[in-house]
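Subject: sequence -> structure tokens, single chain

Hey, anyone have a minute? Need the predicted structure for the following. Not urgent.
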Amino acid sequence: MQFIHDNHRASPLQALHSRFFPGIELWVKRDDLLHPDVSGNKFRKLKYPLLALRDQEPVLVTMGGAWSNHLHATAHAAKLAGYPAIALVRGHDGSGEVSTATLDDCRRLGMQIVFVAREAYRRLRDVPGAWREHVPQVTERHVWLPEGGSAPAALHGVAEVIQELDFIPATVMVACGTGATLAGLLAGLQGRGRVLGVAAIKNGAYLHTEIAGLLQQAGYPAYLNYELLTDFHHGGYAKAPPELRQFCLELSAETGLPLEPVYTGKMFYALHKLVLAGKFHPGERVVALHTGGLQGARGFL
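Reply:
Had a minute. Here:
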């Protein structure tokens, strides 16, 4: 797999010194720098599912929103691997098509875009095999990749984040969309330390079930050394009120760290608030995983 083997290296681990995080020893795992095209945790989540297909000639089928980092990463990975790819994209109404910089990139990379209505999109999540209703002439070559790349095999790639560290931190912070990245970090930690997951969506408590299911399906123990924080969504997925945007701007200006407000910005904002509330031990060693997704910030320009 060219997109894997040509860029198989650990992402940098950067010490971060900022007035926003007093009293802790903060490190950032820069997965935004892991691959030039296939961004951050999406690279890790795609790695093993695509390696399993290397002796086949698959047609990749997946789903996502109009600014989806997963679609963007899958389009790049498919192009590099020489695989056809189809994206089922959530539409704003029954037939309305959407044009975004993300989808334009996907099209240029050869990904076929198929818009589906919101109700049909929900069925893609809830009904196994529902994707077949939107793909003509499905064959045995067609392979389904779940939303966000959250297949059980994805956990093996995310677990390598921990293997790349020189130490086991007391706390790992991560933003959560589907729960697969958090589950992968638990798999890598093997019961050591703890993970704090910041849900980027409203009503994110259901992610507990997703995390447990993914761990079980991937063959890992039912690790419970994590906490899911559900009060830092800032209004819901892709919502970025002025306070959050200003925080991201100020933190980036101070540290040079590129941020977007959908995932990583919310994680760092939550970390800032937790530090001020005294939720960490003095000098506690914390690793924050920068999951990339910077292309999605174009939706806020």
